[in-house]
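Thought: the user wants the 3D structure for the chain below. I'll pass the sequence to the structure tool as-is, report back what it returns, then summarize two notable features.
Action: structure_tool
Action Input:
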Amino acid sequence: MFGSHFYHERIRKAVATFGSLFNNLWVVRKDASGKTLNQQKVPLSYSPSDKYLQRIRENASLVNDMKVAIKLPRMSFEMISLAYDPTRMLPKTGNISVAGTDNTKRKKIFNTVPYNIAFQLNIYARSQDDCLQIVEQILPYFSPQYTVTIKPLEDYPSVTEDVPIVLNGVSFVDEYEGALEERRTIIYTLDFEMKCNFHSDITESSIVRKAINNIYQTAGGIQGEDLQSSRVTLLPDPNDVSRDSDFGFTQIVQKYEDLFAATYALTMSAEPAEGLATLSSTYGVASITLADSGSGFSFEPEVIISSPPDAITATAVAILDSATRRITRIDLIDSGTNYLTTPVIAIASPSIATTATATATLDGSRIGSITVTGAGTNYDGQDSAPTVTISAPDVGDSAAVAIAVVNDSGVISAIRLTDSGNGYSLAPTVTIQAPPAAVTAQAVAVVSDQQISYINLTDSGTNYYSAPSVSVAAPPGATQATATATINIVGQLTGITITDPGSNYRTTPTVSITNPVPFENEQYTDSEQVTLTFSDGVIVTAYVKSWNDSDNILTIDNLSASDNGSRSLVTGLNVVGQTSNSSLIISSIIEGDKGF
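Observation:
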């Protein structure tokens, strides 16, 4: 019936607080000269006085002390009544406020209910002096009240409360009846009243962070909404201040217009854009056409064009005429791709020519034979054999004559003597003519549509005994096309500009446009300010009343235009949250109730 469970231990703390006032009292006994004989701390317990009196009376005789007597002096106290105090009642609407779970909330406890708790303190002693010592250690502090400060709420140490304890009266009884040997008991009774307060449950609620004042026409009164002229809204500035901050306020003055006097439920949307690419005759991206301009773009999205295939290097092979040792043509194996300029054709050079060597041996004064010691290379014996020169004899007669024999491999296989000469005392020197210098074949490529259509042989070269390798310079690497997008003021794409057409696109590439932020990441927050920018640059601000991310419906109110004019909301406007940074597009509008 009364709500959730709570327990502040208020009565328990009151009893503990009262008892702690008297738990450190001492009795000192002295002789006639003033010398201290002994001192004793007075025990204190929570118990009714009747309990102790009964125990004392059970062993009242000093003659037959068979039981252990209660040691005196001692004190006991008890709570004897609890009564409502109407003189201290506060208004029911008042409350104590403490910090909440965040800066937008406060916890509060409604004003306390006053009650007076009556306590009785009893002092027991055998001698009057013991009692008077105890009483005199208490009475000076009560005139007639003594105030203690407590923390009534365990979880909120900053909340304190002053609790008066009033001494209402002191009485005593001296029980000294019966025979001389019976015990004497003196009892002092002190009556107190503690003025306590009882606290209700702790509740949490939001802080008032916005004040709105509607201004009406003075002459017309306030009969009807059409008589409102303006509204003044006060907001803390900044809006995330803590309870101890020193801050000012932002004042917003709005004219009463149809636009600003309504609550709007907006259906929000965000659609991806789609683009289609076209190629140029040079195999680059010529343009991108928007097939769908999309919506919900708060910034220019990234445009990604798929990569072209890798460029292919052309390959070719040389065809050799073995009879002439020359290249007759070059055949293409692969025409390659992405040749934007004429590539270099490199043909391997023929082997380097070496000169043959030989030595002569004498037979008497004549040359008996000539031995080839180095066959040489690149001798073309089909045209003419190389000249063999033999040095003249030492004396008289004629020099020897010889000819070289060249085989199909272009080397000298033998030297034949046609005249052995005469007059040689030493073996003559044999010198063989050097082979002709080899010529490297040359060729040029003819490029059409970024491919090599054929290779034209411009020099067939010489002295090729095997088909040389032919290499074609690689084309430049294929480049990926790039583009940028532009959006309009309502968050739609208006165009895509090619910043690099790329190269080697043999087929039309795909165009990918990054999507707007998905709905699950768009979370407008209650009471945050949003902005709507119109095509003419006018900015309308509003405040979020609610956001339903299941149906994508945003409810806004409290609209204000930067030009203080009146205008109608239209679909396609981008709604940007100033706190959440959410950004979506209005796809439909439902106007709510009029009035602020």
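Final Answer: Structure generated. The chain has five domains: 10-97+114-199, 210-260, 274-309+479-513, 315-351+440-472, 357-432. The longest strand covers residues 161-175.
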